[in-house]
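Q: I have 386 residues here and want to know how they pack in 3D. Can you give me a structure?
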Amino acid sequence: MMKVIVITSLLIMNITATAQTNKELERRLNILAVEISQMKETKTGFGNTRIGGYGEFTYTNIRHEDETGKTVANGTNPEADAQRFILYIAHDFSPKWKLSSEIEIEHVNQIFLEQATIDYIHSDAINFQVGLMLIPVGIVNLYHEPTSFLTVERPEIESKIIPSTWRENGISFFGKNHKLNYRLSLVGGILASGFSSDGVRGGRQKGAQAEARDLAWVGRLDYQIVSNAVLGASAYIGKAGGTNTDVSHKIYELHFDGTFAGFHTRVFYTISSLGNTTQLNNELGKTGSAAVGKKMTGYYAELGYNVLRNITDWSLLPFVRYEKYNTQDEVEATFTKDKSKDRTNTILGINAKPIESIVFKFDYTMAKNKAKTGQDAWRLGFGWNF
C-alpha cells in the first residue's frame, strides 16, 4: 500500500512540474512570436540583410636574374601576403531601396571602404545608384573576386592603365533591355599629381576627402551573345585634378569574356590618352624617360580548358595568357621613352576549384620588355567568395 501511495505522489508531482514547464515554454514562445512579428513590421531582421565577401592569399617569388641572365641588384625576396579580406554587407530597406557596401582589409593592417551605395531599383530598364562606386571600365575592375580570374594576380594592364580596384564617389544610371546591359555614370576624377611613367594607379582618390572639381563621364555597354559569353565596351572621358595643369584623361576599352564546353576565353584591349603632358611633367618635375606618357595602350588574350569536365565536379583549368602593354606608347617630343615600359608577359598556369566558391592557383610569368630587364616570377594563391 505504501508503494502505491509513493508512486502516486511522484506521478502527481511530475504532472504538476510538467504543467509548470509547459506554461513557461508557452510563455517564452509567445515572447519570441511577438519579437518576430515586430522584426517583420520594422523590416530590420536578417531576412533583409545579407552578408558575403571574398579573400585571397598569395605567394610571390621573383627571379633575381633578368631576361639576359644578369643578376639584378637588390632583388626582391619571396613574399607571402594575406592580400585581401573583404566583407560585403547589403540591406533592403524596401523592395526598391537598397544598400550595397564592401569593407576591405588589405595586407592585414590596411582598412578601406571599397563600395557604399544607395540603389533605387525601378525596373529592368532603368535604375539609380549614388555613393562610392566601382568605375565601370574593363573586366576585372567590376568582377575582381579571386574566383573570377585565372591568374594569381590581376592583369597588369588592369592595374596600371585601368587602376583596379578603381572606385570614386559618383552617381550612376543602369539597366538592361533583353541581352543588352548599360551603365552611365558621373564620377570624381583621379589626381594627375599621382601619375608616373608606370601609369595612373597613383592617382586614385578612393573617395577619401576627394577633390571634386574635376569630374568624368563613364559609359558602358555589354551584350550577352549567348548565356556564357559577353561582348562589351566602355569609355571614360574627364579631367584629372591635383595640379595647376589642365589634364584631360580618356580611356576606351573593348572586352570579351566567354565559356564554351569547358573552354574559358577572355580578350581585352584598351587605349588611354592624357592631355597637356608637357606642362604636367614640367610641373611634377619629371624629366627624360621618367615622363608621364601622353598615350598608353595594352591588350591581352587568355585561354584555359577544364580537363576534368564531365569527369568530376572539380574544375582544373590549365591556361595561358599573353599580355602586352606600354605606359609610354607615346611621349611628348621633349622627353624620351623608357624601353622597360614596353612590356610583354606570357603566363602559364593552373587554376583549380574543388567547388565554384573556392580556388587554388599556380602560375609562372615569363616577363620581357624592350630594355631586356624583365624578371620571370612564379606565384601561388588561394581564395574564396561567398
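Q: Anything worth noting?
A: The chain has two domains: 1-42, 82-344. Residues 1-21, 35-45 have pLDDT under 50 and may be disordered.
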